[in-house]
Design goal:
2 copies of one chain form a homodimer. By secondary structure, the first copy, chain A, is of the alpha/beta class. The first copy, chain A, has 9 helices and 15 strands. Chain A is 25% helix and 27% strand. In chain A, strands 3, 4, 5, 6, 7, 14 and 15 form a 7-stranded mixed β-sheet that branches. A 6-stranded parallel β-sheet of chain A has the order 10-9-8-11-12-13, with helices on both faces.
Chain lengths: 334, 334
């Protein structure tokens, strides 16, 4: 191949909030594919909060990105060359890897996408990892029942938007928490939630009392911090906390204490975490469920697209600061 | 009837640890039974940590004992008189009520006991509420699997002893935490746990590292406080915390903060509370399972019996201080 791969590597481990200098750009030749491998030119990179965890050495559920290594993400790409019979040049596939313009992957790790089924970028958002996350957490832990009150934090984000809509479809009253008036409008007008709380402008406790007069039965936890502290005492008996993430502390070296767990006994609460990568085998189930809902408008989504590999570090830092609005993607020129 | 009921009422709400003056003794005539009612002379009163919650006005899962009201407990009694065809004088039944010598109850609320099946006092302990508590929490939340490590706090107590034995029967390595060398010996030698930790004499963190070299898969929470703080960071991926009680803080007006919940996401933890009174309908299931194991020695138990109604307040205060050793009962003279 004569292609050049432009990529972003981890130059040093961020301390607290990452800064652009934590990353470095490199150019390397794209290697020839081995038997069974496919060369992808990336069309979209997915930026997600979990990637912050990979930049640290702290013990987690996945290995950290090594210093000098390509920063991890999932990507959608077009096949440039293939030594796997299932893929031909021009095909589009989910399963590329990393903050870079190209990747060479075993064909068996890729999922071929049909652009007629849905825009291929949705394989990184509503029909991909974030959507599957919402589906798994709501099905397995949240288990929303008709008439219950469900509160979703980071409600305009890629996961929260789907989680809340699934609860609406289950017949729940759904309250979204988001940062800023525009996101709150989106949560109500586009996603169809019953109410929204602007955590930047409102007193959380008072806003929860106003929007959840019957208490809270399911809390979708994306953020931790002050939102968790305000929600916890308002959980009803038998409430479920779906522990998806706690982005508010991803940059903290020394996380603050949490709630006293006495109410967990008294109210028979269930607080349960999950990691979507344990559940990849359910992606086909989710896509079969969600793609028709996406086409007929029962499921809405929003993408926040930045252009070009150079924009990646700043967009990622913005994500950790809550500055994205919808599923954050980097689009690379074809 | 010419019988006199001697009873203990709540004189004032305890502040922190109860003291004897929070209670008062009274004598009242035993009323005649109405149609369908049964008069019981109590043989055994059950003293349990949950009763502390009933003495406070704080919102809980059950109404508080009113000032001047009889302090709540479950009891086993002998039928003195009956206007329910299912009970005859001389029968023994579970379902009496309160820190008192007699009660008059609807027969439909009573369970007739067969003294040949097991000593009737066990209906308040291993074959009663504490045993059912252990069964429900382990079956529904703990779900111990062969080869896992299970840590049980208050391991020599009425609930902990059964919880740990059920985990042993499931093929787990079981470590009990108890207060004092004598209780720790009992936990190992009588209950058959693999190891015991004396929380009064040992550094909890070091002792857990020593006794749980492969981490902790199930934690049975009876106590909260320092034990919870030492166990939490040692939970393995997919560990379950069975939230049965937090006796260490039952007398605290202002409970301390709990653990930061970040690991709940990362380790996919499940922290779930339950209240056995939601599950009374499973008592027959538990008795059918446990009574044969009690007879053939697979299930061991220990009772700590104090004599006479006058001993009740001090025994209850001792329970809250961890001074009982086994299921705490008050025996009343026939």
């Amino acid at each position: 191949m004569t292609e050049t791969n432009r990529r972003i590597v981890l130059r040093r481990r961020p301390v607290g909030m990452p800064v652009p200098d934590d990353f470095a750009f490199e150019e390397v030749p794209v290697p020839e594919p081995a038997e069974g491998e496919v060369v992808l030119k990336h069309l979209y990179l997915s930026l997600d909060p979990y990637q912050r965890g990979r930049l640290s050495e702290a013990k987690s559920y996945a290995a950290p990105v090594p210093i000098g290594g390509v920063v991890e993400c999932r990507a959608v790409g077009r096949v440039l060359a293939s030594r796997d019979g299932r893929f031909a040049p021009g095909d589009v596939a989910l399963g590329g890897f990393g903050w870079q313009t190209h990747s060479v992957m075993p064909g068996r790790q890729l999922l071929k996408l049909d652009p007629a089924e849905a825009p291929v970028s949705t394989a990184l958002g509503v029909l991909g990892m974030p959507g599957l996350t919402a589906h798994v957490g709501m099905s397995d832990i949240g288990q929303p029942k008709k008439g219950e009150t469900v509160v979703v934090s980071a409600a305009s984000g890629a996961v929260g938007a789907v989680a809340g809509q699934l609860a609406r479809l289950a017949g729940c009253r759904v309250v979204g928490i988001a940062g800023g008036a525009e996101k709150c409008r989106f949560v109500i007008e586009t996603l169809g939630f019953d109410a929204a709380i602007d955590h930047r402008a409102e007193d959380l406790a008072a806003a929860l009392d106003r929007t959840c007069p019957d208490g809270i039965d399911v809390y979708w936890e994306n953020v931790g911090g002050a939102v968790q502290a305000a929600v916890f005492p308002r959980l009803n008996d038998f409430a479920r906390m779906v522990m998806c993430g706690m982005i508010a502390q991803y940059n903290d070296a020394d996380p603050p204490p949490g709630p006293n767990l006495g109410p967990v006994v008294r109210k028979r609460l269930r607080i349960q975490g999950f990691i979507v990568s344990d559940q990849w085998h359910r992606l086909a189930e989710w896509r079969a469920l969600a793609a028709p809902m996406l086409r007929d408008g029962r499921l809405r989504h929003r993408e926040d697209v930045v252009e070009g590999l150079e924009a990646t570090p700043a967009a990622f830092i913005g994500l950790l600061q809550g500055r994205n609005f919808g599923k954050l993607l980097v689009r690379l020129p074809e």
